[in-house]
Amino acid sequence: MSAFYKVLQWSIWSIIFIGLSFYSCDTLESVKPYQEQTFIKLFGGNGSEEGNNIIQLPDGGFVLVGSTTSDSHGGKDVFIVRTDKTGNETWKKNFGGTGDDAGNSVILGENNSLYVCGEKTLDNGLRDVYVINLNLNDGGSIGIRTFGDSLRDEYGTHILEVPGRGFFITGTQDSTASQFFLIETDQSLNEIDVGKYTGDEDFDNKSVKSFSLNYPEFVCFGSTTSKGPDVNQDLSNYYLFHYTTSIGNAYAPKRYYGGAENEICTDVFKTSDGGHVLTGYVEDADYTKEYIVRIDQQYSPVWESKFDNEYGVDSKAFGIEQTNDGGYIVMSTIELPDPANDEISLMKLDFNGDLEWRKIFGSNDDDIGMKVLQIEDGSFIVVGTMGFDINPDSRTKMSLLKINPNGDLVPL
């Protein structure tokens, strides 16, 4: 497939953006004219940045989290950016040590401060769960905690607040297998209880996400290589279980979603009717495809969908949210063949999981789409990572894009 044909399939912004860079890699200078005409925001400094997650604030602005090597304390630092509602930077902060650290999730607490959950590399090279409490107004540190036993890797993937009680942090630990890792804290992030769901479950170490039902009842989603009785034992499946915080033990039947293929769960969204929709990807006989499972309030499957694409290439979903019309918006990354690189893909699904449209955005380098939000005016806010040829030490930038309800980049 020619580069010209690929460009014709893309959005208007992508035609302009990529069209100027067929014979040379993108730079911040080449992108700037189009960045000033459309809602494309890039964040970072003299190093490389990645965008992993985002929330919208009550004032309409946003907080993005990820990692950076710009002015870092060593390797990668946790990178946090607050913007106004038009995506203009209000403040940015680095947190970390001499190793590689990253922010994976962020929430706005009931005390109107931010809580970022991620991972921190220790002096011995292993990782601990890393939680940072920040002042919303200026990004100043209120409190920082690490959780783990310093004997194995622990990754923090999700934090949620239990109003009036404290916080519930989920992740995984790596020992002989990757196991579920649970932390409960008070409102000052002081540890109350740490339980490890050891069992026979081998969790994917970046996919665990949890939702509160009625404290102390929670439900957790992820992916695991441990299967139900009818699934091959060497493959991954989407996975769900219930547990209580005080002991961290499952108390309800476990559920598995998927078949005799590798299915990796990357994100979950609680739907308006109390059910959930799970997204990720499946590695089938042809190539890797986005894979979506819709379940009801009793956790029974309603529908599941695998998505081919016209290019016949690998695509992986990393974020999902229910849209205002009852359908779904899916954030994914697609590997296009000419020029060979990863690009940001956005898919709109209807209520039944059928594809309404797919739009692709990106530079002439590798780009990754991680999370998507729909905001009050119906537009979609996308966070991820965009690649540029700037200098040997600065290859990527945290990115924020605004897309209209039809899938086109919003002009400023």
Outline the structure in words.
The protein is mainly β. 5% of the residues lie in helices and 52% in strands. The protein is built from three helices and 28 strands. Strands 1-28-27-26 form a four-stranded antiparallel beta sheet, with helices on one face. β22 (315-322) and β23 form a beta hairpin. The longest helix is centred in the first third of the chain and has 8 residues, at 12-19. The protein is globular. The model is unreliable at 1-25, 230-235 and 244-248 (pLDDT under 50).
**What portion of residues belong to β-strands?**
over 45%
User: How would you write the strand order of the largest sheet?
Assistant: 1-28-27-26
Supply the number of helical segments. Answer: 3
Shape verdict: globular
- Give the tally of β-strands: 28
The major sheet is characterized as: 4 strands, antiparallel
What is the residue-averaged pLDDT? 81
Radius of gyration: 21 Å
Spans of at least 5 consecutive residues with low confidence: 1-25, 230-235, 244-248
Helix/strand/pairing class, anyone? mainly beta
C-alpha termini separation: 33 Å
Instruction: Indicate the percent of residues in helices.
Output: under 10%
